[in-house]
Design brief:
Layout lengths: L1 E4 L12 H4 L5 E2 L7 E2 L9 H5 L5 E4 L1
Antiparallel strand pairs: 1-4, 2-3
Length: 61
């Protein structure tokens, strides 16, 4: 399993607030483009899923 950010749900027009809440610094973003979750760092704690107001983060098989 891994976490993904859905391009169609993420507005990509601002700095992603999830970057600050990730305890493993597993979310990165270049400029205001789609944030990426670095699976090697992600512990799947679920904080980003709960915090994302756009429901853009989900688990992928």
């Amino acid at each position: 399993m891994s976490l993904i950010i859905n391009r169609n749900l993420c507005p990509q027009n601002h700095r992603c607030p999830l970057i600050k809440i990730c305890p493993m610094n597993a979310i990165v973003q270049i400029n205001n483009k789609l944030p990426q979750i670095i699976s090697e760092k992600c512990i799947e704690c679920g904080k980003c899923i709960k915090f994302c107001g756009m429901n853009a983060v989900s688990k992928q098989n």
